[in-house]
Structure formats: structure tokens, C-alpha cells
Amino acid sequence: MQGVCREHDAPILPRGAGTSLSGETVNEAVVVDCSRHLTRIDAPDERARLIRAEPGAINEKVSEHAGRAGLVFGPDPSTHGYCTIGGNVGNNSCGMHSVQAAFEGDGARTSDNVHALEVLTYRGQRLRVSRGAIEGRAQTS
Ligand SMILES: Cc1cc2nc3c(=O)[nH]c(=O)nc-3n(C[C@H](O)[C@H](O)[C@H](O)COP(=O)(O)OP(=O)(O)OC[C@H]3O[C@@H](n4cnc5c(N)ncnc54)[C@H](O)[C@@H]3O)c2cc1C
């Protein structure tokens, strides 16, 4: 998809619930609503204290799944029943329980609570980024 957009010089704008406060999800662009289909949440890895979710997964649902392993995803904006993990990452969101997360983990912000991201760039590179590491390969479509 991003290959076609690139051919036509069309910008791409991913969005989750669109609850950002500064119009971040409004533009003349191909808008990708991740909350529609990119919603998978895997079972939590209790030992590693990690959970893997697609960007359109709802924050509250991710926390519900994580709760099965006694974990909580700390950042919980007031919009937690609607906002998505992709939007949390895009805005580096916090929340009421973020303060508690700061005591139990690395900090209060979403960036403090993300282990790794799989990223697709506009130029078609698929990257796995984590603290201190970037692995990637080019993708053609
Ligand atoms: C009433 C109200 C209360 C709020 N309370 C809080 C609060 O307590 N704490 C707080 O931190 N925020 C708060 N917010 C702001 C907002 O709800 C949060 O920032 C939330 O995390 C945004 O999630 P979203 O799914 O709506 O993201 P969106 O608004 O859809 O997107 C946010 C940004 O992330 C980008 N993005 C989304 N998905 C992707 C993706 N897959 N790949 C790349 N970029 C992506 C978008 O382009 C955009 O720039 C509040 C907002 C409202 C309206």
C-alpha cells in the first residue's frame, strides 16, 4: 500500500481512535484506521513480563489481557476505553496509573513501557526497533 502512495506522492496518516487533542489525525492524506482490523493481542508472556499487540488494539483491552498474567500496561489515558496502542505510542501517552508504573517499571510514559516496535517506513523498510537496536530489511510492496 505504501508503495502505491509513494508512486503518487501521497502522504500516509495512520490513526487509532482519533482522540488526540491537536488534530494529529486530520490531514489531506491516505488515512489508515488501524482500529478497524489491526487489533490482535497475543497472550502475555508472564516470564518476560511482555505482551504483543497490533497498533489498533484498544489500550483497555491490552491491559485486560495483560492482567491474566498479573501485569498492567501502565499508560492509561482518560480515553483508555477507546484509544489504541498505536496512538499511545504516537503521542507518548501517560495516564493516572502511569505514576504507579513509574514505581514498578522504567517510567510513566508509553516510551518507558515499550520493549520493541515493528515499524514500516514510507520508503518501504520494515524495521524492528528496540532500545539500542535496529534490525531491518527493505520491503517492496
Ligand atoms: C477527553 C480526553 C482525555 C485525554 N486524557 C489523556 C490522558 O489522561 N493522558 C494522555 O496521555 N492523553 C490523554 N488524551 C489524549 C489521547 O487520548 C491520547 O494521547 C491517546 O493515547 C491517543 O490515542 P488514539 O488511539 O486516539 O490516537 P490517535 O489520536 O488516533 O493518534 C495519535 C497519534 O499517533 C499516530 N498514530 C496512531 N496510530 C499509529 C500507527 N499505527 N503508526 C504510527 N503512528 C500512529 C497518529 O498519526 C497521531 O499522530 C486525552 C484526550 C481526550 C480527548
Describe this structure in words.
With 141 residues, this protein is an alpha+beta fold. The chain has one domain (2-115): Uridine Diphospho-n-acetylenolpyruvylglucosamine Reductase, domain 3. Helix content is 23%, strand content 18%. It has helices at residues 2-7, 34-37, 59-67, 85-91, 98-104; strands at residues 12-15, 30-33, 116-120, 125-130, 133-138. The protein has a three-stranded antiparallel beta sheet with strand order 3-4-5, with no helix packed on it. It has a two-stranded parallel ribbon with strand order 1-2. A hairpin with a 2-residue loop joins β4 and β5 (133-138). The chain is globular. Residues 13-21, 24-25, 34, 55, 77-79, 83-84, 86-88, 90-91, 93-95 line the site of flavin-adenine dinucleotide.
Write the layout of secondary structure elements.
Layout: H1 2-7, E1 12-15, E2 30-33, H2 34-37, H3 59-67, H4 85-91, H5 98-104, E3 116-120, E4 125-130, E5 133-138
Parallel strand pairs: 1-2
Antiparallel strand pairs: 3-4, 4-5
Bound molecules: flavin-adenine dinucleotide.
Flavin-adenine dinucleotide (FAD) binds at residues 13-21, 24-25, 34, 55, 77-79, 83-84, 86-88, 90-91, 93-95.
